[in-house]
Amino acid sequence: MRNGSSTKTRVAIAGLGAIGMEVAKALDHGIDGLELVAVSAANIDKHRPWLDKLAKVPAAMPIEALADAADIIIECAPSRLVRSIVSPVVSRGKTAVVLSVGALLENEDLIELARKHGGQIVVPTGALIGLDAMTAAAVGTIHSVRMVTHKPVAGLLGAPHLVEHNIKIEGITEPLKIFDGTAREAARGFPANLNVAVALSLAGIGPDRTRVEIWADPTVTRNTHRIEVESDSARFSMGIENVPSENPKTGKITALSVIACLRKLRAPLRIGT
């Protein structure tokens, strides 16, 4: 980031779906010390109607150019693009805010790359409460972590795990358990759905010891997560019911979490670990 309290930190957004659009509008409305300078999207013309209404229209450029244009790059893109977005950012000693955190399990060398070049990968809290408690407990010893997720059917359709195992959930009338395994396996089988499980695992005991249970549930309208944690410092449980965004695979609170994360960067009072 640039030095000097009067100099604004340049921000770019990769991906302008439901999350990227909300974050872009929030930056344009004003977040202290930050300026939206660039965006990237597969079809930028699709977004021109609302981009052109911003107070300061950001430059549209290819993903590979974002790392030179900004100090902080926010990844709001499909998980397959995470490496191409994050690698040039952290290689330049800059900050990448990653939402498709599940992709980090397939690209763990990016963390070492950030360490080597003085860059940073930031994972916002997103759809999960209690990450502060988890990171604190991880300083001691965590014995077990289990997450049970219930999602509306529409938000799970097309997931690789369902396709691979020929699991049909269209038309079900009662909750159906469709997965029980590790967070790493969940991220692989549900790449658009279980970033929350990966964030939980990276904050705690890792993706191979964190257990995840997933239910396709026609009785719910919200993405529901229940987490149980046993550690030497505390036993705690968490529950959250997230209202889906325009994209049924993502909760509205995810975009708000990114905005809150950005506000913390220059806040005179910062709450949370």
Q: Nutshell version of this structure?
A:
With 273 residues, the protein is an alpha/beta fold. The protein is built from 10 helices and 11 strands.
Can you tell me about this structure?
The protein is an alpha/beta fold and 273 residues long. It has 2 domains: 9-127 and 253-264, NAD(P)-binding Rossmann-like Domain (Rossmann fold); 131-246, 2-Layer Sandwich (Dihydrodipicolinate Reductase, domain 2), CATH 3.30.360. 32% of the residues lie in helices and 25% in strands. It has a 6-stranded parallel beta sheet, with helices on both faces. Helix 1 runs parallel beside helix 10 (252-264) and helix 8 (183-189) packs antiparallel against helix 9. The longest helix is centred in the C-terminal third of the chain and has 13 residues, at 252-264. The two termini are 21 Å apart.
Rough shape?
Answer: globular
Uncertain stretches of 5 or more adjacent residues:
1-5
The assembly state of the depicted protein chains is single chain
Based on the structure given, which CATH architecture of the largest domain is correct? 3-Layer(aba) Sandwich
Rg is: 19 Å
**What is the typical, i.e. mean, pLDDT?**
92
Beta fraction of the residues? Answer: 15-25%
| CATH superfamily label of the largest domain | NAD(P)-binding Rossmann-like Domain
Order of helices and strands: EHEHEHEHEHEHEHEHHEEEH
State the end-to-end CA separation: 21 Å
At the first level of CATH, what is the class of the largest domain? Alpha Beta
What is the total tally of β strands?
11
Overall domain count: 2
CATH domain fold name of the largest domain: Rossmann fold
Largest sheet: spatial strand order = 3-2-1-4-5-6
Question: Helical proportion?
Answer: 25-40%
Q: Given the structure, what is the number of helices?
A: 10
The biggest beta sheet reads:
6 strands, parallel
Structural category is alpha/beta
